[in-house]
Write a structure and sequence with these properties.
The structure holds three protein chains of three kinds. Chain A folds into three domains: about 35-135 and about 180-230 and about 235-270, Aldehyde Oxidoreductase, domain 3 (Alpha-Beta Complex), CATH 3.90.1170.50; about 270-450 and about 595-745, Aldehyde Oxidoreductase, domain 4 (2-Layer Sandwich), CATH 3.30.365.10; about 460-590, Aldehyde oxidase/xanthine dehydrogenase, molybdopterin binding domain (Aldehyde Oxidoreductase, domain 4, 2-Layer Sandwich), CATH 3.30.365.10. Chain A is about 25% helix and about 25% strand. Chain A has 18 helices and 30 strands. By secondary structure, chain B is an alpha+beta fold. Chain B has three domains: about 10-60, Uridine Diphospho-n-acetylenolpyruvylglucosamine Reductase, domain 2 (2-Layer Sandwich), CATH 3.30.43.10; about 60-165, 2-Layer Sandwich (Uridine Diphospho-n-acetylenolpyruvylglucosamine Reductase, domain 3), CATH 3.30.465.10; about 170-285, CO dehydrogenase flavoprotein, C-terminal domain (Enolase-like, domain 1), CATH 3.30.390. Chain B is built from eleven helices and twelve strands. Chain B has helices at about 15-25, 40-45, 80-85, 90-100, 100-105, 110-115, 125-130, 145-155, 215-225, 235-250, 260-285; strands spanning about 10, 30-35, 55, 65-70, 70-75, 135-140, 140-145, 160-165, 170-180, 190-195, 200-205, 215. Chain B has a five-stranded antiparallel beta sheet. In chain B, a hairpin with a 6-residue loop joins strand 11 and strand 12 (about 215). Chain C is α+β, with helices and mostly antiparallel strands. Chain C has two domains: about 1-80, Ubiquitin-like (UB roll), CATH 3.10.20; about 90-155, Orthogonal Bundle (DNA polymerase, domain 1). Chain C is built from six helices and five strands; from the N terminus they run ββαβββααααα. In chain C, a hairpin with a 2-residue loop joins strand 3 (about 55) and strand 4 (about 60-65). The relative contact order of chain C is 0.16. The chains are: A alpha+beta, B alpha+beta, C alpha+beta. Chains in contact: A-B, A-C, B-C. At the A-C interface, helix 1 and helix 15 of A face helix 3, helix 4, helix 5 and helix 6 of C.
């Protein structure tokens, strides 16, 4: 299915490319993002950060900073009422106590009249470090037992041996979210002992719980308001400046603004965890996969934070979108001093899917079989059972996706432009057309949709209809992904009216869940649909009573009350007689359970989505230069709510995956990050971006209004294996480590990996960090429906 | 249009070269600002910036591209955009478009670019290939050096770049680079070469394979001798040997961006292909 | 510290502004956003790498984050000055939002200003011309496809 992608502000309802309500304001520069906000009497906050990956703080003297004119507050760890926070595990210090565990860890904070004075105040703070040896190697961390979570499970008969066995060790790098909108916001006293925090976030309710707990305040004393968010990609799930801002606001009794610099964002914030994954496929000679074995290691930084669900995802989804009857999978999340790690689009799934798809490329080669054909033969279908013992009880059209990805437009022929812009290497490339090998590769991937393993996934929405127009209130965060647009479309279709708007989001509203795990369309969207349906029911009941029609004969279409045969009776506006029709509904996804120890029938994941992609690359093998020429992406989206937005989300996610495949890496050397600007950490530019065709399948998601399914993480999962399958076809190289930089593609890079599986004593599970974690009162993770212990509720 | 209100001159605004060098002699800590694109970014990232800035933008004598016979004089304050628009050399055209974005080209200056000696960012390999000279000024007056001398010595304390002077040079002029992405930014390694049939001379500049841009005199001499200038051709073996000699002239490191092995390999291949391209251009169009 | 403050005179969107307490090292971006309140110019990379802070200086796009405010002569146009005063969109702005794929939109003001200078110089631009001419503007949400389409369409004469 292909669609008209031009947006239209007047388009109404599900299936149209209704224009974002904020599009014009954004194009005119009037849309207020978090860094743009200001308050009268506002101070500027700044953060002193560790310059060492591991050190004891022998002395921290704040007094020289406190004495500076224009400085209003200087605070250290001892000023924090409860000096730990975390979105899942509460084990991260708000400000370091006596040890720093990564470069960039906050030690002290200041509030001053001006950002420059604040910066100079930081410089005046005296910190004496006793430098300690950092733990910087994930394999060493595993050997030493610095393990946050270990999982080990089998499926079917793990002793089965295939005719053909292919194994490999694959690595993925630390990736930065690199959203354009810097971390920023303003905290101000509410005048009643509490604090109001306005800034960019993915989940106002989680932020409120974390801030309140660290400040020792009841949650009602903290109001979190979401501002304009300049991208997120999983990067705003854990707090950054918010508790610091609240502390300073309460100390100074003035509004305090934080605005991280780009370099500070690199240092302070978490990144996608690097991984090292061993995988072995067993297959019959004709390409039927009979077993998968895997060992998955996530390097997860100095604090456990959100790492538990990451390794749960990583270990469970290693099999990919294939039916594999036997398995033995182990996974470890380990701690090092190489900076914080956490969720980034496709959390915990980008990496195993890359590893297993890469190993399938190798298996196809070993079998002498086309990669697409190998994947077709093993494609999962509805009714199959995942290796983690969950029946695939919703559509899994994997074979159809693979076939569809092989159709569609072919890329343009090799361009011989004088500038080289159409050749690998870009402008000034040494590559000539005759140096180019063109090849295609096919890859298919799956991802869990919604949070898994017992995490509460629910949202509440309020819909109000008055004078023929509806207003939606839902706290779900709009981070750029387009929730507000699709919420309006859902209400338009459900209520049969055109005038629908949606309000902002704050923690005074009912919980709208997190903008994570590609869950909002099918969760908050579900709540919005249910609330609109209830409003419609109440409205038509009123019309029935007031105007004497049988309720069963009435409907709403095109802003009119109609009879079922389409006869227009009156406008919705007139029929409502200025009365208010309102409904609040909560939509909860089904309960899930922790990977290990589930009873039969208990799902680990809520549901899944699938895609397949044919990617074409041009490669200069001698110099290792690559140009991705074209990608044809087909994804089962359940129901296309907004074709333009869905296409944009999918293409954008795939490009982010292309970045990870070819250029994005945030390396640490001796515990110190070496890239701190966008001249050093490279993301794809317009010249690097290929044309990406996006097509949809629409097999409705069961149990969800309109059959909608989340879409936006899977494309990032899809990008790396698609690019690398094509690159391997072009070069014949295994290319196990991404990003595939020129020296690797030119085969001049010494492979750093020993072969074989990592080994570690699995009983050496040390929980020093996890054990210090405490439950957060009022934490939305502690949903009454799911009081169980697990990775989400330690 | 802006004036410093305090008696300590935080912003120095000379209007002549002499004023500039005089001010630098009195305020040696002042940071010279051409377009500011590197200097300002550094200040934004650091805790302490320089105590004062000396702006070159008010010095009319430093601006503009002028042609003198067959040669070209490029004032230090010429923006990369104006240099591009002046269509001085196809080699510079491609280098400017690959290194810097349109926004940076509108602000960054030629003088600032070559004064910053980090080889991955600069046009210095191009000016080596064009056999340029650099005019610089200090308290003791102006001096003129070959680009080869300039890249190895750099500016002395208190000195500013005045101009880059390109001699008349005809024939094949090309720049290629390998980089970690196809879009704009630093090069891992770059090679600029000009092969002038009139002067019967070869000049090469290398970027990314040493502490600064490097010349490759041995490779230049080899290729000059290996070319049959009357027939405008050379052998495949000579092309390959030229590439090998470029690697020999290199002194690359393994760093965050790439490996020394790859850098040597890249200049070897780029050198060979450039000579092949020259040969083909002579005989196919 | 007082001796580190300077006064500035800037021409922005046709208005003469006087600022008398700027830091001598302050960027044009900082003055526009935090002293003149023109927050349509976006702060992001601070190294001239992303184009979010693009403004026009005498019609040419520059990165305001790496321009020293004390060293800016000429007429600065920000997104506030470029956008029609009646709240409508220019044909370029309309083409960009109609082409389909505004997401977070943080790149958009810089994209619009760089695009306006680009289409002035490139009538009937090809996709490759757009890719090269707009390579100084990063977008992290989209795959650039609709931005390329929008700018190409706006360049039609």
């Amino acid at each position: 299915m292909r669609n008209d992608l031009r947006t239209d502000p007047g388009a109404v309802g599900i299936g149209t490319s209704r224009r974002r309500p904020d599009a014009a304001a954004k194009a005119r520069g009037e849309f207020e993002f978090a860094p743009d906000a200001a308050e009268p009497g506002m101070l500027w906050g700044a953060t002193l950060r560790s310059v060492h990956p591991h050190a004891r703080l022998v002395r921290v003297d704040l007094n020289p900073a406190k004495a500076m004119p224009g400085v209003h507050a200087v605070l250290g760890g001892w000023d924090v009422p409860d000096n730990r926070y975390g979105a899942i595990n509460r084990d991260t210090p708000v400000l370091a106590d006596d040890i720093v565990n990564y470069v960039g860890e906050p030690i002290a904070i200041v509030a001053a009249d001006d950002p420059e004075i604040a910066r100079r105040a930081l410089d005046a703070i005296v910190v004496e470090y006793e430098v300690l040896d950092p733990l910087i190697d994930m394999m060493r961390a595993l050997e030493d037992g610095h393990v946050y979570r270990h999982v080990d499970y089998t499926h079917g008969d793990p002793t089965v041996v295939g005719d053909v066995q292919v194994e490999g060790v694959y690595t993925t790098p630390r990736q930065d979210h690199s959203y354009l909108g810097l971390d920023s916001g303003i905290a101000k006293p509410d005048g009643r002992g509490g604090v109001i925090i306005t800034g960019a976030t993915q989940w106002v309710h989680s932020d409120r719980a974390q801030v309140a707990a660290s400040l020792g305040l009841p949650p009602e004393r903290v109001l979190v308001i979401n501002s304009g968010v300049g991208g997120s990609f999983g990067g705003r799930f854990v707090l950054s400046w918010q508790i610091h801002g609240a502390l300073l606001a309460l100390h100074t009794e003035r509004p305090v603004k934080f605005l991280y610099s780009r370099e500070e964002a690199f240092l302070a914030r978490y990144h996608r965890h690097p991984t090292r994954i061993w995988v072995r496929h067993h297959a019959t000679k004709d390409g039927k996969i009979v077993k998968i074995e895997g060992k998955v290691i996530h390097e997860d930084g100095p604090y456990s934070n959100t790492n538990g669900p990451g390794i749960g995802n990583g270990s469970s989804l290693l099999q990919g979108p294939y039916n594999i009857p036997n398995a033995h999978i182990e996974g470890w999340s380990v701690g090092t001093n190489n900076g914080m790690c956490g969720s980034l689009r496709g959390f915990g799934v980008v990496e195993p899917m890359y590893a297993s798809e890469s190993n399938l490329d190798a298996l196809a080669r070993a079998l002498g079989m086309d990669g697409a054909e190998l994947r077709r033969r093993n494609a999962m279908k509805e009714g199959d059972t995942w290796t983690f013992d969950q029946v695939m009880d919703s559509p899994a059209p994997v074979r159809e996706l693979i076939d569809a990805s092989g159709q569609g437009a072919q890329p343009a022929p090799l361009a011989d432009t004088a500038s080289g812009i159409g050749l690998p290497g870009g402008i000034a490339t040494p590559t000539r057309p005759r140096d180019v090998v063109r090849a295609t590769g096919t890859s298919s991937v799956a991802k869990n949709v919604c949070l898994s393993e017992g995490a509460p996934v629910n949202s509440t929405a309020l819909v109000t209809l008055r004078d023929g127009a509806a207003v939606i209130e839902c706290a779900a965060a709009e981070v750029g992904q387009g929730f507000k647009t699709i919420a309006e479309q859902i209400v338009q279709t459900t209520l049969g009216i055109s005038r629908v708007t949606i309000t902002g989001s704050d923690s005074g509203m009912a919980d709208g869940s997190t903008t994570d795990g590609q869950l909002q369309t099918m969760t908050s969207g579900g709540a919005v649909a249910m609330a609109a349906a209830t409003v419609k029911e109440r409205f038509l009941r009123f019309v029935s009573r007031e105007y004497g029609h049988d309720e069963k004969d009435l409907d709403i279409r095109d802003d009119h009350v109609v009879l079922k045969d389409g006869t227009r009776l009156m406008t919705v506006s007139d029929a409502g007689m200025h009365l208010v029709f309102q409904a609040t509904e909560r939509f909860a996804q089904r309960q899930t359970w922790e990977l290990e120890g589930r009873q039969p029938g208990q799902p680990m994941h809520v549901t899944f989505n699938f895609s397949a992609t044919r990617c074409t690359v041009d490669v200069d093998r001698e110099l290792g230069l690559v140009r991705v020429v074209h990608m044809n992406v087909v994804q089962d989206v359940g129901r296309t709510v907004n074709p333009a937005q869905a296409t944009g989300q999918i293409a954008g996610g795939v490009l982010m995956g292309l970045g990870l495949a070819l250029m994005e890496e945030f390396p640490y050397v001796d515990g110190v990050p070496t890239r701190r600007t966008w001249d050093e950490y490279l993301v794809p530019t317009m010249i690097d971006a290929p044309p990406i065709d996006v097509a949809f399948l629409e097999y409705p998601e069961p149990r969800i209004p309109y059959g909608m399914r989340g879409i936006a993480e899977l494309p990032h999962v899809q990008g790396p294996p698609a690019v690398m399958a094509a690159l391997r076809a072009a070069t014949g190289l295994p290319l196990p480590c991404i990003p595939a930089t020129p020296e690797k593609v030119a085969d001049l890079h010494p492979d750093p990996l020993p072969t074989g599986a990592p080994t570690a004593p699995s009983n050496k599970r040390i929980r020093e960090n996890v054990e210090s974690a405490r439950a957060v009162p009022g934490d939305p993770m502690h949903d009454p429906v799911s009081p169980r212990k697990g990775p989400w509720n330690p | 249009m802006t004036t410093a209100v305090a008696h300590t001159p935080r912003v120095l605004r000379p209007t002549t070269i002499k004023e500039a060098t005089g001010a630098l002699a009195v305020h040696p800590g002042a940071r010279v600002v051409g377009g500011g694109t590197l200097v300002v970014a550094e200040r934004s990232r650091g805790i302490d910036g320089p105590a004062s800035y000396l702006l070159l933008s008010g010095i009319v004598d430093l601006s503009g591209v002028s042609r003198d016979g067959g040669g070209v004089r490029i004032g230090a304050q010429t923006t990369l955009r104006d240099l591009l628009d002046a269509e001085v050399s196809p080699l510079l055209d491609v280098a400017l478009r690959s290194l810097a974005t349109p926004q940076i080209r509108n602000r960054a200056t030629v003088g600032g670019n070559i004064a910053d000696r980090r080889p991955a960012h600069t046009l210095s390999p191009c000016f080596l290939a064009l056999d340029a000279a650099v005019e610089s000024a200090g308290a003791g007056g102006t001096r003129r050096r070959s680009m080869r001398e300039f890249v190895s010595e750099g500016l002395a304390g208190g000195e500013i770049v005045v101009s880059v002077i390109l001699p008349e040079r005809s024939g094949f002029q090309r720049y290629t680079r390998v980089a970690p992405r196809n879009g704009p930014g630093y090069a891992i390694a770059s090679v600029a070469v000009s092969i002038d049939p009139t002067a019967r001379s070869v000049r090469t500049g290398l970027g990314g394979v040493g502490d600064s841009a490097l010349a490759a005199p041995a490779a230049d001499d080899f290729l000059t001798a290996a070319i049959d200038w009357d027939a405008q051709t050379t052998t495949d073996a000579a092309a390959a040997e030229y590439g090998r000699l470029l690697a020999e002239a290199s002194n690359p490191v393994t760093d965050d961006r790439s490996t020394a092995t790859y850098r040597r390999h890249a200049v070897t291949v780029m050198g060979r292909r450039l000579v092949e391209a020259w040969t083909e251009e002579q005989h196919h169009g | 510290m007082d001796d580190e403050r300077i006064s500035l005179n800037l021409q922005v969107n046709g208005t003469a502004y006087h600022v008398d307490d700027a830091w001598y090292f302050e960027t044009l971006l900082s003055v526009l956003r935090y002293r003149l309140g023109l927050t349509g110019t976006k702060q992001s990379c601070e190294t001239g790498s992303c184009g979010a802070c693009t403004v026009l200086l005498d019609g040419r796009p520059i990165n305001s984050c790496v321009a020293l405010a004390a060293d800016v002569q000429g007429n600065v146009t920000t997104i506030e000055g470029y956008s029609p005063a009646d709240g409508s969109l220019t044909p370029l702005q309309e083409a960009l939002v109609a082409a389909g794929d505004v997401q977070c939109g943080y790149c958009l003001p810089g994209m619009v200003l760089a695009g306006s200078a680009f289409i002035a110089d490139h009538p009937n631009a090809t996709d490759d011309e757009v890719r090269e001419g707009m390579c100084g503007n990063l977008c992290r949400c989209t795959a650039y496809g609709s931005l390329i389409t929008g700018i190409r369409e706006a360049s039609k004469r």
